Amino acid sequence: xxxxxxxxxxxxxxxxxxxxxxxxxxxxxxxxxxxxxxxxxxxxxxxxxxxxxxxxxxxxxxxxxxxxxxxxxxxxxxxxxxxxxxxxxxxxxxxxxxxxxxxxxxxxxxxxxxxxxxxxxxxxxxxxxxxxxxxxxxxxxxxxxxxxxxxxxxxxxxxxxxxxxxxxxxxxxxxxxxxxxxxxxxxxxxxxxxxxxxxxxxxxxxxxxxxxxxxxxxxxxxxxxxxxxxxx
Length: 232
What we know:
Elements (H helix, E strand, L loop, with lengths): L7 E5 L10 H16 L4 E5 L10 H11 L4 E6 H8 L15 H19 L5 E6 L20 H8 E2 L10 H10 L5 E4 L2 E2 L12 H18 L8
Parallel strand pairs: 1-2, 2-3, 3-4, 4-6
Antiparallel strand pairs: 5-7
C-alpha cells in the first residue's frame, strides 16, 4: 500500500459459496484485518457486492461495519451495487426487479431504502463512493450461475457498467443523492467495466479523453443531484 501511495484497503463482500455464512465470524475476521492495518495507520473500506453470498446490500455491510466497530473501518458505497441490487435485475425482460406490487411497489421500496441510508449512515463512515451505471441486457440473463459459478449480477457487473448518462438505465442519480444527503463530501471513484451494450468489449485508445469525459459526467451527476460541481 505504501508503494501505491494509499492508506486505504478496499474489501468487497465475497461471492464465494465456500466461506462461512456466520456474520459473527465475518465480523471477527474483519476486526483482525482492521487491527493489522491500524499498525500502519491504514484504513479499510468495506463494499457490498449486489451478488454477494452474504452481504449484497448497503444495509448488510453497514450492519457489519457497525459490529466491527473499529475507527479505521468504514464503507465503500457504489451506485451500481445499490441500484443494481435493489432496482435492476438482468434476468428479467424489463431489466428491473419483479415486485408483488408492481413498479409502484418497487419505487416505494427503493426510495425508502435510500431515505434510510441518508438518515442512518454518518458521513464520516463513508470512505468513498464508486460511480457507474449499467446497460439493460438485450436478452435477459440466465438466472442460474454460469460455468464458473458466477451469479447473474456478477456477470452483469463485469462487462455491462458504463459511466452515468452513457447508455445505462439505473437510477444512479437517486443513489448518489442519497449518499450526499448524509453529508458525505469525500472521494468519488469512477469504476466502470464497460464492454458496450452487448458486453463484448470496447477499445479505449485515449485515457486522457476518457478522464475528461468522466469528469464532465461526474459534474453532470452532481448537478442532477443538486450539489456543487467539482472544482467550483
